Amino acid sequence: MLWLANSPDLNAIEKAWFYMKKEITKRGPTTNRKKLKARWEKCWQDLPQSKIQEWIEAIPHHVKEIIRLEGGNEYKEGRKKGEEKITIY
Q1: pLDDT, tens digit, for every residue of 3-60?
Q2: What residues contact residue 58 under an 8 Å CB cut-off, 6+ apart?
């Protein structure tokens, strides 16, 4: 498969960035660069191995779906059928 790094579901590090951003923003915003860097580093160190393993174990499922769809763009990254995110305004 070509371009795996460009598909967030096939590149486990992409899940880490999203997770870390969510965790860091729970504490509220900061404009202090030093504090922000410290938050990112702490979050990276505290990243649960179970989360990393979960992301890695999901990759074969995503690969199978992409193959099933013959590489088509119908694939909804990160979501299984019926689990699509619904936005309520």
Answers
A1: 555 666 677 788 899 899 999 989 888 889 999 999 999 999 999 999 999 988 888 8
A2: 9
Long-range CB contact pairs, 41-44, < 8 A, 24+: 44/20
- 80 Rama sector, left if φ>0, alpha if ψ -120 to 50, beta otherwise: beta
Amino acid at position 48, single letter = P
Q: CB-based contacts of 18: which residues, under 8 Å, 6+ apart?
A: 8
Alpha helices in 1-89 (DSSP H): 12-25, 33-46, 49-68
> In this structure, what token pair is assigned to residue 33?
């660069």
